[in-house]
Every structure is written in structure tokens, then in C-alpha cells.
Amino acid sequence: MRWLRKGGIGRLIKMKVTEYFLATRQRRDRAAIQEAWIRRVMEMPEEEERQADDRIRRWARVEEADGKVLRVVLLEDGETVHNAFFDRGYKP
Prior knowledge:
The chain has 92 residues and is an alpha+beta fold. It has three helices and six strands. The protein has helices at residues 19-24, 28-31, 35-43, and strands spanning 2-8, 11-17, 47-50, 56-62, 68-74, 80-86. Strands 1-2-6-5-4-3 form a six-stranded mixed sheet. Strand 5 and strand 6 (80-86) form a beta hairpin. The longest helix has 9 residues, at 35-43. The chain starts with a strand and ends in a 6-residue tail after the last strand.
């Protein structure tokens, strides 16, 4: 597990992330996902579901990304990001 620090104008985003998350961030389709969007889904999900392995799925629409739905998968601690992607198959 590692910390991801991303500086911006006057702000620091700090998240715990897995090595898997860091590896998938190299994909072109995932690199455009902003850490601020991930944090927003973590803090204000529109829907949440617990998987059989106790990981937590959270979804929310991201208006800045043409209204796409972002799914964030967290470890069972609820704060470590394991995966984040635009979920084209999401149905509320």
C-alpha cells in the first residue's frame, strides 16, 4: 500500500492506494481520471455496495467527464483505493 500525493493550486490530495491501482493508472483510459473525482466518489457516493471479498464499490456521476459514472473500489478499510474506472455498464 502506498500514499498518492498530488499537488494542485493551493491543495494537496492524499490517498492511500494499492500497487494494483498505480499499475492500472498507466492505462490511457484511466490516466484521465482525476484524483479529485476519485476523492469525491469516495466521500459522496450515489450508490455503495459491498463485494463478497469485503471490498467496497462506490459510484457517482462526474459532470466534468461528460456525466460518465465513475466506480471506485476500496479495500475493506474504506479508505484505500484499489481501482477506479468509468463504469459503462452501470445501471442505477
